[in-house]
Amino acid sequence: MLAAQRKDRILDLLRADGRVVAKELAAAWDLSEDTVRRDLRELAADGLLHRVHGGALPASPAVADFTARTAIATDAKSEVAQLAASLVRPGQTVAIDGGTTARELARRLPPDLRATVVTHSPTVAVELATHPTVEVIIVGGRLFKHSVVAAGAAAHEAIGRVSVDAFFLGVTGIHPTAGLTTGDADEAAVKRAWVGRAAETYVLGSGEKIGAASPFEVVPLADVTAVLTDAAAPERGVAELRAAGVDVRRP
Fold first, then answer.
1. Three-class secondary structure of residue 99 per DSSP
2. How far apart are CA 162 and CA 245, in angstroms?
3. Distance (Å, rounded) from C-alpha 223 to C-alpha 132?
4. For 178-216, b where at least 16 C-beta lie within 10 A, e where not — what string?
5. Are strands 55-58 and 20-21 parallel, antiparallel or unpaired?
6. The HTH deoR-type domain covers which part of the protein (predicted)?
7. What is the pTM of this model?
8. β-strand partners of 248
9. Residue 52 pairs with which residues in a beta bridge?
10. For the segment 20-44, what is each residue's pLDDT rounded down to a tens digit?
11. 80 near 151, Cβ under 8 Å?
12. Residue 236, CA atoms < 13 Å, CB-side half-sphere
């Protein structure tokens, strides 16, 4: 089997099974594990999978930059955002993460809602600038341009002085064993800080993120209240999360 054929087959298996194990592939194809690992490294370098110990998991399409992500799964994100908006109660103080689904959530908060939103996302803040009864508090810091959010020491210090009723968390990967992941270590740290300051944490998890993984863990699945996803999210992925004890909610 040629290298290109092996790589196509690896990607097919990832789509079908949700993971591949290098040792099993080597045995099935009568190849050395080093050959399979080289294929996995090259596919990972192209952004087509995420390597883990012993094999690989599907890579998340949500690791693209903010502008590119605006065109990914727009209907699904709208469903997730509407579900998230229904969880915000009058009088609450909530934190909203950065990202395209988070921005959609800000757009969908009811016009008569009286609440406080704290965010480290300039795009979320701008969406709420014209909301008549939502108070907006912006957390500042170094701008992480990839996701258009504040990061770094200043953001951490500010977050550490706020307590919120709920945090709406954006991630790029939601996997039953890899947990909740994202593509940047500093951004993961800011998200983790918010989880630590929230009474409840809801994951904004449109279907393309379920079963996928990225390099940096945010928190384990056990640390969040629920994963909010869309009606068309993959049944297998949803079932695996529920089997792992995760509260998965759909419209």
1. coil
2. 29
3. 33
4. bbbbbbbebbbbbbbbbbebbeebbbbbbbbbbbbbbbb
5. antiparallel
6. 3-58
7. 0.83
8. 227
9. 55
10. 888 888 888 888 888 888 888 888 8
11. no
12. 8
Q: Would you state the structure tokens that stand for residue 163, as one six-digit string?
A: 């307590």
| Rounded Cα distance, 33 and 192, in Å | 36
- Classify residue 31 by burial, with Cβ atoms within 10 Å: 0-12, 13-18, 19+: middle
User: How far is residue 14 CA from its own chain's centroid?
Assistant: 19
Structure token digits, residue 221: 């699945």
Give the strand pairing for 55-58 and 49-52.
antiparallel
Q: Is 101 helix (H, G, I), strand (E, B) or coil?
A: helix
Q: CA 92, CA 72: separation in Å to the nearest integer?
A: 30
Separation between Cα atoms, residue 120 and residue 165, nearest integer Å: 16
CA distance 137 to 23: 51
Report all structural domains of the chain as residue ranges with CATH numbers, in order of start: 3-59 (1.10.10.10), 66-249 (3.40.50.1360)
DSSP string, 40-68: HHHHHHTTSEEEETTEEEEBPGGGS-HHH
> Which token pair is 201?
């944490």
Reported as a single tens digit per residue, the pLDDT across 200-250 is 999 999 998 998 888 899 999 999 999 999 999 999 999 999 999 999 999
**What is the Cβ-side half-sphere exposure of residue 219, based on CA atoms within 13 angstroms?**
20
Tokens of 138: 């912006």
Q: Which residues contact 5 (CB under 8 A, 6 or more apart)?
A: none
* Most confident stretch, 43-52, 104-113, 149-158: 104-113
Burial class (CB in 10 A: 0-12, 13-18, 19+), 75: exposed
